[in-house]
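Service request form, structural biology core

Requester: graduate student, group of Dr. S.
Request type: structure prediction, single chain
Budget code: on file
Notes: please return the result as structure tokens.

Sequence provided:
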Amino acid sequence: MGRYIFAVQSNPAEGLEQEYNDWYSNQHLNDVLALPGVLGARRLALADQQIMPTPHNFKYFCLYEIELDNLQTFIDALMARAGTERMPINKAMGNSLPVFWKVM
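Core staff response, request fulfilled:
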């Protein structure tokens, strides 16, 4: 079995931060956690204080721990559900950058 981190950086749509956080924490996390292979998730927000200026354009970050034999199977299941009743996308979702990392 392979272990992966699915890391998603994101921002809410302009003026919809409260709705975005409510949707992400109370619905979207559960929708992703329902996918086969997902072991857990953690949401983070960029801290106001940093050691040096950061080039990050994203305020929010979510890490999903995944364990499975074939990462493409997870990607296919995620894409098949995205935007459906099994994983609705809220209008409060702004831009995002999803990236997979292999655990060494």
